[in-house]
Amino acid sequence: MNPFKTITIQQSVFANNDKQADELRKDLKNDQVFLLNLMASPGAGKTTTLTQTINRLKDQLKIGVMEADIDSDVDAQTISQTGVKVIQLHTGGMCHLDADMTRQGLKELYTKGLDLVILENVGNLVCPAEFDTGSVKNAMILSVPEGDDKPLKYPLMFTICDVLLINKIDVMNVFDFSLEKVKERALKLNPNIQIIPISARTGEGIEEFAQWLKQETLKWKD
Amino acid sequence: MNPFKTITIQQSVFANNDKQADELRKDLKNDQVFLLNLMASPGAGKTTTLTQTINRLKDQLKIGVMEADIDSDVDAQTISQTGVKVIQLHTGGMCHLDADMTRQGLKELYTKGLDLVILENVGNLVCPAEFDTGSVKNAMILSVPEGDDKPLKYPLMFTICDVLLINKIDVMNVFDFSLEKVKERALKLNPNIQIIPISARTGEGIEEFAQWLKQETLKWKD
Asked: How far is B51 from chain A (nearest CA, A)?
């Protein structure tokens, strides 16, 4: 039997998602729970990055994870091996989560006593950027094999994120990828975005991201 | 000045996309134009694959290309270097093209005299799979760095495609990717899908895809 629950999220009935998102953030503040929304293309390394990050933080913070996918539960399986609380959300074909769908997931996860909840959004650089989930902060992963032109082609995602993790830097030598160009393009869209090059495989850079996440969680609970 | 036009596609007003798609296919048949819808995640190598394929076919077929993107015209710039007719479609934030949006693009491209039109859809494994564009055939690219679990997580895309190109096989040795597993998973979803491993960078496998595309185009014009 799986050590996690799988639920199918219902489509939202609310017309005003921004209002729902603000209300969710207010409730999270009252409950002293920090919510991070993690977004990326399919295969950019969200689950591996999360596993590495959780292993560095799980003795310091009480962590819960919501894995959102169209189908399958391979990601929840992987995360459950870290020992933290995890739930698989199936979106029923939906390409993103909005605030009400996120609230449905949080209710099933049961957040009482948790410090930090991470939502791994559906693998997609387009639609998740258009819907505020109610998260306190947004992070995205761009992986080296995807190319350094992605800020030009998917500008909204880079604009709404607080942190940009550039993953798979351990294979930079086999791809035509300029870290300088991607930094320049991302900062042009979003001068406040924090950029952290990482390798989820080797662990490089993960400590810096884990420290950022811990500090933001503690600030939120202040 | 750019050697191509950039247009912004308008959202469709039609409720029944499947009907619009069937009508577009009928018109394409009458006009003797074959339309391929090419889909993939961001950064899977759609444009590089297209460039390689076009260079092998442009002396045998009259080709037009529609590059659909949220923003930027870097892909149309790249394709225009092959010398074929190209147009950049901006989707105004939309995450996919439907049949009416495709028809808008075809009208601006002006297809008279063309044998083959290729639509490079928005980089996204979710939404484009849900909307019939009116294309004669669908192809998708999965790149090695994305991982071999993608058929499990994005099953609809693998189900609706006639061809699956597995790109970036030249870097297979630096990733944990099983060609056998991905083939098995894709064929379980879609026993008729044709799977062609390629490297758009080295050109490996491109000739096989180009031959398939040429045969399908000639069959359609029969």
From this structure: 16
Mean local confidence (pLDDT), A133-158: 97
Q: Which residue has the tokens 């391979």?
A: A74
Report yes or no: A105 and A94 within 8 Å, Cβ to Cβ. no
Q: For residue B158, which of B172, B170, B146, B169 has the smallest C-alpha distance?
A: B146
Chain B nearest-CA distance from A122, in A, is 9
Q: Which range is least confidently modeled, B2-16, B54-68, B171-185?
A: B2-16
A161: domain CATH number? 3.40.50.300
One-letter amino acid for residue B172 of the chain: M
- Is B135 a member of any domain? yes
E-strand stretches of chain B: 5-8, 34-40, 63-69, 85-90, 116-120, 137-143, 163-167, 194-197
Is residue B143 domain-resident? Answer: yes
Residues of B in contact with A156 (CB under 8 A): 70, 93
Q: Residue B179 belongs to what domain range?
A: 10-221
- How many domains is chain B built from? 1
* Angstroms from B147 CA to nearest CA on chain A: 6
pLDDT at A1 (0 to 100): 66
Confidence (pLDDT) at B1: 66
| Global confidence as pTM | 0.95
A23 to chain B, minimum CA–CA distance in Å? 26
Three-state DSSP at A39 gives: strand
Q: Which helix (H) or strand (E) holds A99?
A: helix A99-109
Which residues of A sit within 8 Å Cβ distance of B?
41-43, 69-72, 74-75, 93, 95, 122-127, 130, 143, 145-147, 149-150, 152-156, 168, 171, 174-175
Rounded to whole angstroms, how far apart are CA atoms B119 and A161?
A: 30
Interface residues on B facing A, Cβ-Cβ cutoff 8 A: 41-43, 69-72, 74-75, 93, 95, 122-127, 130, 143, 145-147, 149-150, 152-156, 168, 171, 174-175
**Binary contact (A150, B42; C-beta < 8 A):** yes
Within a domain: residue A103?
yes
pLDDT score recorded for residue B12: 79
Listing from the earlier edge strand, what are the strands of the sheet with A137-143?
A: A5-8, A85-90, A63-69, A116-120, A34-40, A137-143, A163-167, A194-197
ipTM comes to: 0.92
CA distance A179 to A185: 10
**Does residue A4 lie within any of the structural domains?**
no
